[in-house]
Amino acid sequence: MLTKFETKSNRVRGLSFHSKRPWILASLHSGVIQLWDYRMGTLLDRFEEHDGPVRSVHFHNSQPLFVSGGDDSKIKVWNYKTDRCLFTLLGHLDYIRTVEFHNECPWIVTASDDRTIRIWNWLSRTCISVLTGHGHYVMCASFHPKEYLVVSASLDQTIRVWDIGALRKKTVALADDTSRLNRMNTYLLGEVDVIVKYVLEGHDRGVNWASFHPKLPLIVSGADDRQVKLWRMNDTEAWEMDTLRGHTSNVSCVIFHTRQGIIVSNSEDRSICIWDATKRTALQTFRREHDRFWILAAHPEMNLLAAGHDSGMIVFKLERERPAFSVSEDTLYYFRDQFLRSYEFSSQKEKQVCIIRRPGSIFLNQGPRTLSFIPTENAVLICSDVDGGSYELYIVPNYGARKDDVIKVKKGSGGSAVVVARNRFAVLDRSSNQVLVKNLKNETVKKSFLPIVTDAIYYAGTGNILCRAGDRVVIFDLQQRITLGELQTPSVKYVVWSGDMETVALLSKHTIVIAGKKLVHLCTLHETIRVKSGAWDENGVFIYTTLNHIKYYLPNGDSGIIRTLDVPIYLTKVSGNNIYCLDRDGKNKVIPIDSTEYMFKLALLRKRYDHVMSMIKSSKLRGQAVVAYLQQKGFAEVALHFAKDQKTRFYLALKSGNIQVAVASAKEIDEKDCWYRLGIEALRQGNTSIVEYAYQRTKNFERLSFLYLVAGNIEKLCKMLRTAEIKNDVMGQFHNALYLGDIQECAKILENAGHLPLAYITASIHGLTEIADRLAAELGDNVPSLPEGKGCSLLMPPRPLVCSGDWPMLRVMRGVSEGGLDYGGRTGHEEEEEATGADWGDDGLELVDAEGAMQNGVLEVEDAEADEENDVEGGWDLEDLELPPDIDAPKATGNAATLFVAPTPGMPVSRIWIQKSSLAGEHAAAGNFDTAMRLLNRQLGIRNFAPLKPLFMDLHMGSHTYLNAFASAPVISIAVEKGWSESASANVRGPPALVYILSQLDEKLKIAYRATTEGKFSEALRVFLNILHTIPLIVVGSRREVDEVKELIEIAKEYVVGLKMEVKRKEIKDNSLWQQELAAYFANCKLHRIHMKLVLASAMTTCFKGGNYSTAAYFARMLVESSPSEAQAKKARQVLQACGDRKDASQLNYDSRNPFVVCGATFVPLYQGQKDISCPYCRARFVPAIEGQICAVCEIAVVGADASGLLCSPTQTR
């Protein structure tokens, strides 16, 4: 059994596969219907309208409908697109056992415990026929897939086959008067629409299930007599063919496999049995430890089965469908239908090479697993799981084999076998951990012990093998007997080497690892669904398939989707725009693909800019995905040619330093933020004309004045002073006067603003005697005193280095789109001519005409306020800022080919840490607290992050160190990686070094134990809570440590609940009854043996003092049985003697004979069978009223929240 998907839930009573989509419906005993995507492993929807268990569900084969039936005697028809019940069919009087749609007619057949079968028309929503005759509960009823028949099974020990052909004729429109007359006579004579065709008797007890064969006239049934019976029928009669025995309890369900000649049955004996329908023998049995099976379902088109049991369901298939194949140069060799076949890629011709008659097996899944072809010797090596692992060697005659030729076979046992040379192959002997090198006569010529305990070997070049051991692989040289390379990777399933044997792809269930020929790690890709196959193309791109996609994987780690798939395929070769593959039936297919996207990215990666530009001109690459990719990789100037949205073009132009395009886009957008960003970028480049233009558009006069100051443009500063005066902007006037060094104007502004003392001081210091005397007269006795003996100097602005004009611009290498391509020896003049005639030249980039934006040396700026103040000294108008005639128009200086591109910053290590990590501790260490909190909320339902804030800060600070480079330079932050060494590759980054580790929690646990023993309950409670708060943020390295962490959560939870009850008990003074109950509940917690004795002694003492002698005697007996100290034992015996047969004085809410847990919030017992709700993190239990509140035990998670579970190790995501 190959399990593809499994769920945990209440008992599953009904299952149904969707015919087209990867969906399965499961109806539960709790009354819920679940819709699952079994490929992705996700719950898509829930439907809850039934009262009580839902025993059956069924998808319609073409409409977006499904039907359900339950113990509420209701049949509901649902639309899964609108997530609602369309209508309910009423008529049955008891539980409904099964429901099913007809393949063609708008019918539903239902079976019920009211001993009837009903056929409904779901279009008219009416019952069109009631089938009576069974003498007990009808357990199932189903339509024949092709004929108008119904089969039913009942606890009256019979199986009935009903003919519903007349019902079909009744619903067909009448063509002529004769037909209508015959129909009328039928009504008058009372003839029925459904008749019993056969009644099959043979079971000794009630029959639980019966179903038709999809093609043959066969019926299979299962009953409470533990037997499966096979029946055959013809036009006139039906009879029993055989009985299949093997189950040890009631047979719940039995069906025919839709694509293989087998019967599948399940039973309450916790097993699924597979039977050969032809030989009528048992092939295999699969068992579960604790779950009874109730229902089976087969996919109508695929090789998939599903089974429902007491705690959920499983989706599985019986045999792997991957064909065994091998590629040798231009030919594919593969095994299908007992033939070795070849397929020539160039001519696309297939032929049979020879017959390979493999021995039959009484077990499933014994077909060829791998196939290797040795072209020099024309030999075929096949490996399979027969007899626990074996190989078969076939030598094909050079002239080819005729149809009747028998090819001799050489066999042997071994875990796996691979070709290692032109006439040698290696076989793995798992028992001795050796590899045996054999010749084509099947003779062992060499033995080598392997460096690791190996469970499979793969080809790794001539004389080398790749050994897999759990989560690592090594390359072993058989000649020198040394290890050439080693790599940690999830369990490898398939190995695909590139054509030059320089690169290898290691395919796991959900992971692809690309490595060099010595297993030097290059990159890793994680997939959410299963990886099925892969192949290298001639350009070094790895093409691979999942269950529903063909994808590509570039050497730098980038990946993407090429196209979608309806059914899985297995790649054999990639050539140009064609993919050669095998389907699950072993048939060759050629699938055309569009390789433009990944070839474009590959050209960028390899800096083949000539290819990039030719693809830009000729291809149909479009869309935001291409723009985002180019921007991410630092090719903003290339992305500029794909972007159409003006905002996108603006930001790309800024990133690539193309000011002209940025100005054009800013004009189209005309938003203040865009002009602000444009001004910053232009200022960084030294293009003061564009800076001035941007400041004028945003009316940012303060920045404009300062720009004129540093540019030495005194004339425009004078104009800014007059402008501020017109706008009545006092601070603007004063600043501009300071910039100009006009002290007389400064004094005048201060005087007009009413600051006479400041005006007097300014005039006096700078020698303006007349103004100072006049101001002194106005101030009278309030004239401020000036300091004596201080030297005074005029306040004058510094002289600018460059007066007016643009500043020298930073020069960097030319970008891709500016002609910086290496075309292989062409002159600069030739490149310039080609760039002039290119399709994406100046006209395509919509460059702004900066000279056109200037009129008579003045930038055109729309100013609504200018017209309002034309009557005051000409009015406020930016056009008054006349520029000198010798000033050039604002445009980028230098040649167009020397426009600079800002260097792209590298990716910080902290960002690398979180790229593919789902561990909250690593996100917190990287400083991404928001993503860490989202992960904790999704995984553990944590919502109260206040207790975790100091832990977040410790993780972040502890995973970084800080260096002072220079006194005036900012501090440099350096990420600290776990396990770093000087020999480590600079391109490979390890996970962060975390300050919280599991061993620290063990030490804290010992401290908490010691505090509990010493009776320091508050301190112990604080330490246990700290453990619970720290655990979500730690990272461990193995599954064993994950189990230890989960065990630690359970320990801390028990102690926190118990200690909180003990602290509460000590606070209570006037309620003796509650004190006794809390002491009794504390004794129910799972504590360390030493603490358990102390708790039992405390409960015994408290109950004895409260007069509850029977309860005190119970605790005394438990204390005696727990190997107490001599003093404790003596005291317990004294209490037992004193209590004798005395009864309790008061009734406690405590029953020692009924198992219970204590509510972590209300401290009341929750006995077995009572409804409760739990915390998703610490698993503490609560009364239902606490749902939605913060857990009172861990104090961070929300009670009853949906959560995926604790994730604290990378091994959990493999």
Overview of the structural elements:
Residues 339-583 form the COPA/B second beta-propeller domain. Pfam families: B-prop_COPA_B_2nd, COPI_C, TPR_COPA_B, WD40. InterPro entries: Beta-prop_COPA/B_2nd, Coatomer_alpha_WD-assoc_reg, Coatomer_asu, Coatomer_asu_C, Coatomer_complex_subunit, TPR_COPA_B, WD40/YVTN_repeat-like_dom_sf, WD40_PAC1. This protein is of the alpha+beta class. It is 27% helix and 29% strand. The chain is built from 29 helices and 63 strands. The strands form 18 sheets. It has a four-stranded antiparallel beta sheet, with no helix packed on it. β4 and β5 form a beta hairpin. α12 (714-726) runs antiparallel to α13 and α23 runs antiparallel to α24 (1017-1030). The protein is globular.
Task: Describe, in short, the structure shown.
It is found in: Cytoplasm; Golgi apparatus membrane; Cytoplasmic vesicle, COPI-coated vesicle membrane. This protein has 1214 residues and is an alpha+beta fold.
Write out key terms for the chains shown.
1214 residues, alpha+beta, 29 helices, TPR_COPA_B, cytoplasm, repeat
The whole-number mean of residue pLDDT values reads: 82
* Individual helix count: 29
Global outline: globular
Q: Main sheet, how many strands, which sense, barrel?
A: 4 strands, antiparallel
Sequence stretches where pLDDT stays below 50 over 5 or more residues: 819-899
Summarize the helices and strands and which ones pair or pack:
Layout: E1 2-8, E2 12-17, E3 23-28, E4 33-37, E5 42-47, E6 54-59, E7 65-70, E8 74-79, E9 84-90, E10 96-101, E11 107-112, E12 116-121, E13 126-132, E14 138-143, E15 149-154, E16 158-163, H1 165-171, H2 177-189, E17 195-201, E18 207-212, E19 218-223, E20 227-233, E21 238-245, E22 251-256, E23 262-267, E24 271-276, E25 281-287, E26 293-298, E27 305-309, E28 312-317, E29 325-328, E30 331-336, E31 339-344, E32 349-355, E33 368-374, E34 379-384, E35 390-395, E36 409-413, E37 417-421, E38 424-429, E39 434-439, E40 444-449, E41 456-459, E42 464-469, E43 472-477, E44 482-488, E45 494-497, E46 503-507, E47 511-516, E48 521-526, E49 531-536, E50 542-546, E51 549-553, E52 559-564, E53 570-575, E54 578-582, E55 588-592, H3 596-605, H4 609-618, H5 624-632, H6 636-639, H7 646-656, H8 659-669, H9 672-685, H10 688-698, H11 701-711, H12 714-726, H13 730-740, H14 743-752, H15 756-765, H16 769-779, H17 828-836, H18 842-845, E56 854-855, E57 858-859, H19 909-915, H20 920-925, H21 929-940, H22 949-958, E58 960-963, ...
Antiparallel strand pairs: 1-28, 2-3, 3-4, 4-5, 6-7, 7-8, 8-9, 10-11, 11-12, 12-13, 14-15, 15-16, 16-17, 18-19, 19-20, 20-21, 22-23, 23-24, 24-25, 26-27, 27-28, 29-30, 30-31, 31-32, 33-34, 34-35, 35-36, 37-38, 38-39, 39-40, 41-42, 42-43, 43-44, 45-46, 46-47, 47-48, 49-50, 50-51, 51-52, 53-54, ...
Helix pairs in contact: 3-4, 7-8, 8-9, 9-10, 10-11, 11-12, 11-13, 12-13, 13-14, 14-15, 15-16, 23-24, 24-25, 25-26, 26-27, 27-28, 27-29, 28-29
